[in-house]
Design brief:
The complex is a heterodimer of chains A (671) and B (160).
Chain A: H1 3-28, H2 33-52, H3 56-73, H4 81-98, H5 103-106, H6 110-126, H7 134-144, E1 148-156, H8 167-176, E2 180-187, E3 193-202, H9 206-211, E4 220-229, H10 236-246, H11 252-264, H12 275-278, H13 285-288, H14 297-323, H15 327-350, E5 352-354, H16 356-373, E6 377-382, E7 387-389, H17 390-411, H18 415-420, E8 427-436, E9 439-446, H19 453-462, H20 474-480, H21 502-511, E10 515-521, E11 525-533, E12 538-546, E13 549-554, E14 558-565, E15 579-581, E16 584-590, H22 591-595, E17 604-612, E18 615-621, E19 623-631, E20 645-650, E21 656-660, H23 662-670
Parallel strand pairs in A: 6-8, 13-21, 16-18
Antiparallel strand pairs in A: 1-3, 1-4, 2-3, 5-7, 8-9, 9-11, 10-11, 12-13, 12-19, 14-17, 15-16, 17-18, 20-21
Chain B: E1 7-15, E2 18-23, E3 27-32, E4 46-52, E5 55-61, H1 62-65, E6 78-85, E7 91-98, E8 100-108, E9 112-113, E10 127-133, E11 136-141, H2 143-146, H3 149-152
Parallel strand pairs in B: 2-11, 5-7
Antiparallel strand pairs in B: 1-2, 1-8, 3-6, 4-5, 6-7, 9-10, 10-11
The chains are: A alpha+beta (671), B mainly beta (160).
Chain lengths: 671, 160
């Protein structure tokens, strides 16, 4: 697969998400034109790209389905469940195909054959008497639009020649072929193209023209200028003006004036045009305003790595600064610290993308699931613009999907049950995302029947997970849900209830150093609250010292710190093994005891209180040295067995500290 | 084709009184020993982790790994940074602590004698051959055996 094809696949996957989104909106509001136009345009773009990059089978499918939506636009066909489902299913398969690693599988015709036939059948069945020929559809559409003369200026951002096989060359040719046109290629001495100027009289709308460039975004900038209604090229004078413009005898403004003069003579008025074309200049927002550019993930990772290095160097410099008595040096160091911190904050944001892409997927899931289970479910989302690390989004997709699946399967009742319970027939599943300090919060809630604690406890006891005498608080009980093998669904359904899943959900969140908590009220609903750290590579932590080894404890888990005499820790000869800290008995784990029992103990010990799975626990260290920004460096893979250490971090003096995973340390001492 | 007269470069080093040589194909560089941080619950011969210009590497005590007494760190102690083949052909870099790193020498294939039987060694010999310079013995270390990925990745073998 060449680079252009790779880019196509990447862009096409984005387009498929947009398509899903549009279809979902269209389903919710079948007579709205905006989503219809979006669906149509997306299909069209997809078709163009697929044909251009050698995925003709996808192009053909897109074309056939586009035809159906064209009929909708013309009012011949109504948006129906069948149509939406057919489209969704067809492009689900396309998505699967595009995710194949093997290009021959990607090109496989068979997979799409079924959907292609389905689309054809759909057309046949809708219009049994019509002799509607497929090819006419696009012609028909063109007639509807208004002929206008447009100046297209394309400036390649990379070096290309006319002979080079760059897609941009073909795109420009394609555009020039959309109607009567006149074009000029301006080259430099070495034959590289400086820019194209095409004046074209076409019925294709500017918005659609823009879509031609979607696969070469970043490799060129382009501008569309509306010169006037009708085919202005019919006029000799304008021909001359165009030539003058091409050879820079007149500038764009003068050309527009010339065009304006002529346009006045035409029987049309600009007012006939819709809002989109009314704007004189339609520059591509994405490129000209520089709001979005595509950057390869590798480059961003590289950048982040270098910034991590900078932070480490910075801390070394600060360390040296504290030992050198120089005002000048001190000033520079402090300013550098400021700059480094800014750089760090900015760089962390670069790799972030809105969770919107996930939300679209969830909408699909809710739609498909509720349909198949005969439940009525509204899906609401809030804060879809909340940004997260792209990798994290990819990792979190499945876990959140699972929670939603559970919410619909176990949480939301059938319409009859809901009616009987005095609720509205439509259940609601809501996903809310927001930032708070160094965390991203995702709350998935439903207004279903809630979690019945007794059922969980009964099940857990039956499976021997807890003893029947155990006194469990709410948190304990909810945490049982994450236990592998526990499923409270009385009947195992295909969707959920196999009891595999919630443990994986928790594990995934745990791997990202986040946590998940549950709140539930019978008959009112359930909410899952996922909290994830903003950054995967830089964490805030407490730097602590135990027997001359330095550890970092992630700050996000820390509730409070206390200093106690060391003897208070020694509970071997007591029945009560807890340590009284801040007037409360606390179950304390001593790092010294766990890892360094052969060293001389200190006089005092600092106790770090953490909340793990809703239970307060203490970690005893010799001494807390302070708060640090730790750039996480993975331990060598030879330390896979030591999974209670998340990684290491380089301190200001060049030495290494070990970043602990408190949860796993407690598990370690249990086993 | 006769390769036996072709010479290959080896790095020589000492462990106690014994001289060793290791093919320089494995050796990335030799550095002085600085601070290292012990990782809890790891075997004794895994001394800990070191910071090699921002890269975190595990440090192994070569003597302990061979069943010899622990290395006493001196001014002459050196870390050989070795490139090993980890799992799934991934590159695995480790630091191996030795008492003294000497020089790079050229050794001809035909100069290397077959390793004698080490009667008292519990495992098979950790050397691929020896170089005998009039009774001055240099052992050619079997890097893949001494620093076997299986060992240093601490793969749990079923304890009978």
């Amino acid at each position: 697969m060449d680079n252009n094809q790779k880019r196509f696949v990447e862009d096409a996957l984005d387009l498929l998400n947009e398509l899903d989104e549009g279809l979902m909106q269209l389903e919710a509001n079948p007579i709205a034109t905006a989503p219809l136009e979006q669906v149509f345009r997306t299909l069209h773009t997809l078709k163009g790209g697929a044909n251009m990059f050698g995925f003709e089978h996808i192009g053909e499918l897109a074309h056939q389905i586009e035809t159906l939506y064209d009929l909708v636009r013309q009012g011949t066909l109504q948006v129906s469940d069948g149509l939406i489902s057919l489209t969704l299913q067809a492009f689900d398969t396309v998505r699967d195909i595009l995710q194949e690693k093997d290009i021959t599988k990607m090109r496989g015709q068979e997979a799409l054959q079924y959907h292609l036939q389905a689309a054809l059948d759909f057309l046949q069945n809708t219009l049994p008497s019509s002799t509607y020929a497929l090819e006419e559809s696009s012609e028909g559409r063109l007639q509807k639009d208004i002929l206008a003369t447009i100046l297209v200026r394309v400036v390649p951002a990379i070096k290309i020649t006319e002979e080079g096989n760059h897609p941009l060359v073909f795109i420009v040719q394609d555009i020039a072929a959309l109607g009567a046109s006149k074009q000029h290629i301006s080259k430099n001495e070495s034959g590289e193209i400086d820019h194209w100027a095409i004046i074209i009289a076409t019925t294709v709308r500017p918005a659609e023209l823009e879509t031609y460039f979607i696969f070469v975004e970043g490799e060129c900038t382009f501008e569309l200028h509306h010169l006037g209604v009708g085919n202005l090229l019919e006029d000799e004078k304008l021909h001359q003006a165009a030539e003058d413009y091409f050879h820079q005898v007149i500038d764009l403004e003068q050309l527009k004036t010339e065009a304006g003069k002529f346009a006045e003579h035409l029987p049309f008025s600009d007012k006939l045009l819709d809002g989109e074309t009314e704007a004189e200049t339609v520059p591509n927002r994405k490129i000209v305003n520089d709001t979005i550019i595509k950057v390869s993930k590798r480059k961003i990772d590289d950048l982040l790595n270098w910034i991590s290095e900078l932070i480490i160097l910075q801390s070394r410099l600060s360390d040296i600064n504290s030992r050198i008595n120089s005002t000048d040096f001190n000033e520079v160091t402090e300013q550098l610290l400021l700059v480094t911190n800014h750089l760090r904050d900015t760089s962390l944001e670069i790799g972030l993308v809105p969770i919107e892409t996930l939300v679209t997927k969830f909408k699909r899931l809710v739609r498909d699931l509720s349909k198949s289970m005969g439940k009525k479910v509204n899906f609401l989302s809030e804060g879809a613009d909340t940004e997260m690390d792209k990798d994290v989004i990819e990792i979190m997709g499945e876990p959140i999907m699972h929670i939603i699946r559970n919410a619909i399967d176990h949480g939301i009742e059938t319409p009859e049950e809901r009616k009987a319970a005095g609720k509205s027939e439509h259940g609601t599943v809501k996903i809310k995302a927001f930032n708070s300090s160094a965390y991203i919060n995702i709350i998935i809630s439903d207004d279903g029947r809630g979690i019945h604690k007794e059922n969980i406890v009964r099940k857990a006891i039956a499976q021997g997970l807890v003893s029947s005498e155990a006194a469990l608080n709410d948190e304990d009980i909810y945490q049982l849900i994450f236990h592998a093998g526990l499923s409270t669904a009385s009947q195992v359904s295909e969707i959920s209830g196999r009891g595999v899943g919630m443990d994986v959900v928790k594990q995934k969140i745990h791997e990202l150093r986040g946590n998940i908590s549950i709140k539930s009220q019978p008959e009112i609903g359930t909410a899952f609250h996922i909290k994830l750290p903003l950054s995967r590579s830089i964490i805030e932590g407490l730097l602590v010292n135990v027997a001359e080894t330095r550890y970092v404890i992630p700050l996000n888990m820390v509730d409070r710190i206390d200093r106690i005499p060391y003897q208070a820790l020694e509970r071997q000869n007591y029945v009560n093994k807890t340590v009284v800290v801040n007037e409360e008995p606390l179950s304390v784990l001593s790092i010294r005891e766990e890892f360094h029992h052969d060293h001389q103990p200190p006089k005092t010990s600092d106790i770090i209180s953490v909340t793990l799975e809703g239970i307060k626990k203490g970690i005893a260290v010799d001494r807390i040295e302070g708060k640090i920004q730790a750039v996480l460096k993975p331990l060598s893979e030879v330390y896979q067995q030591q999974d209670f250490i998340v990684g290491s971090t380089i301190l200001g003096d060049g030495s290494l500290a070990l970043v602990l995973d408190p949860q796993r340390i407690f598990n370690l001492s249990k086993s | 084709m006769n390769n036996s007269h072709e010479s290959k470069p080896y790095l020589t080093f000492s462990l106690g009184d014994e001289k060793f040589a290791i093919s320089i194909n494995f050796v990335q560089e030799v550095v002085e020993i600085g601070q290292y941080t012990k990782v809890p619950r790891s075997p004794d011969y895994m001394l800990g982790i070191i910071n090699l210009r921002g890269k975190v590497l595990p440090l192994l005590d070569t003597k302990l790994k061979l069943g010899l007494p622990k290395t006493v760190i001196s001014k002459k102690s050196r870390i050989m940074v070795l490139d090993l083949q980890g799992y799934e052909d991934r590159n695995l870099q480790i630091g191996a602590l030795v008492d003294l790193a000497k020089e790079v020498i050229e050794i001809k294939e035909n100069e290397i004698q077959e390793a004698p039987d080490f009667q008292n060694s519990q495992a098979s010999a950790p050397v691929t051959g020896i170089l005998n310079n009039q009774g001055d013995i240099t052992l050619i270390m079997d890097v893949e055996k001494v620093f076997s990925v299986q060992d240093i990745m601490q793969i749990k073998q079923s304890v009978a």
